[in-house]
Amino acid sequence: MRSFAPFLRDQFGITPPQSNHLASEIAAEIRMLPRETLDSITEADPISATARLEELRGFQMFMDIVQAFESHPSVTRAQVINQNYVCFVYLGDACFNALRKAAPPGSVTRKCCKFLTDNPVRAFRNSLAHANWTYREDFSGLVFWARKGGDPNESLTRFEVGQNDLNFWQALSRCVAYIAYTLVTETNSEQGERGNSE
Hints:
The protein has about 200 residues and is mainly alpha-helical. The protein has one domain. The protein has eight helices and three strands.
C-alpha cells in the first residue's frame, strides 16, 4: 500500500508514518479493540472469520493463476467481475460496515472503512450488485450507475472510475479485509486454546 501513500495523504488526511505503513497501523488499531468488540463483529456474521479468510486466500490463488498466464480478453473480463464482487460486495457487506462501527473515531481503520462504504465506492458496490456497470469505451476504467442515497425513487447517477483509482479501491479493500480476518481468526484461536487449557 506504500505506493498509494500520496493518495492516502491527500484524500484521507493520513500522513507518514501511518500512510507508509498502512497495514501495520490498521493491525495495531484492531489489536487495541476490546475483546467484546471483536466478538460482536464475529457474532453479527453468520459466516466464521476463518471461512471468510479461506475465501480470501482462494481468491488470491485465483488472482495469482490469472496473472501467471498470457492475458486473454475473456479471462480479463472474468477477473474484473470476480475481483470487483469480492472487493466491494462480499467484503463490503461482511467486513467494512461492522469494522467501521467498531473502530474509534479518527482512526486510520475508521477512515479506510468509511471510504470503502461511502460514495463513490458505495455507489460502485450497488452498481455491481444490480448489474449497472460497463467498461469505458477505451477500457481505461469503468462506468456505473447508482443512486447516491437510499431513496428507491431517486434517479440513477452516472459515475466513472479510472483504472488507477479502481486499483487503489481494490488494494485498500483487500488490505483491510486480510488484516481484519487474520487478526479475528488469531484472536479466536488464542481464546479457544486458553479455554481448552482451563
